[in-house]
Amino acid sequence: MTTKKQARDYEKRRQAKLEAKIASRQEQRRRRQRQAGWGLLVVAVAVVAGGIVWYGSSHWWGADDESSSPLTPGFEPTLEPAEGWGASPQPPDPSYAEGRTWEAVISTNQGDITLELDGAAAPQAVASFVTLAQDGFFDRTECHRLTTAGIYVLQCGDPLGSGTGGPSYRFGPIENAPADDVYPAGTLAMARVGGNGSSMGSQFFIVYDDSTIPSDNAGGYTVFGKVTGGLDIVEAVAAGGTITGTADGRPALSVIISEVTVS
User: Fold this and answer.
1) Interval 242-252 mean pLDDT
2) What is the C-alpha to C-alpha distance for residues 155 and 194, in angstroms, rounded to an integer?
3) Would the pLDDT of 26 be above 80?
4) Burial of 203 by CB count in 10 Å (0-12 exposed, 13-18 middle, 19+ buried)?
5) CATH of 43-262, one of 2.40.100.10, 3.40.50.720, 3.90.180.10, 1.10.287.990
6) What are the domain boundaries of the chain?
């Protein structure tokens, strides 16, 4: 049986390996940019409690922020740009959503989660999700965050698995957010930076139990679909808690996305 200390030590080793990998990729990127004669824009960030705090107007939950929402990750571009839409500086046009309902299947090591995407109510978010899925952007990614108190969500869609990754583009504004801030179990919504309604990328969250998620000065969170099957898988992951035993962290029961298909 794994003790809490062993779990913490494991998480520290995992984080150290991740940071080393990111540092290596950053150095490779800088080298390529120097060779090409590009300038490098450095954005200062600080690591706080396993999250990212951007110096500026957007903050990770738990930092000195105007809001208390836990679904505001600090984004930065994917360090190794994906092919296709993941490497595009501009998001796909909302017309890609075709104004229709889409069916999607998230295939994971824990089982399949089926979704219904609302291309009429949230065309920008659905266009982004569909095109990224078609490009294989979500393949072999890990759902990196679980919250188990007050707000009940599993957060996925980060190619780095750290809460800082995404495609090269960001999009907004917020679409189809509930006026009462209530997100029922089964809701599929987009994560974003606090106070910034145009900061959405690839990270999304699945609500596994009814949650009230307060709006901030940018509004609520884009709801672009719902779970139609496999919510019990997310509930089982939630029942396992986080790897450190805290109410907010990496799931102890890992969820690896092998593929996302849409039709």
Assistant:
1) 96
2) 16
3) no
4) buried
5) 2.40.100.10
6) 43-262
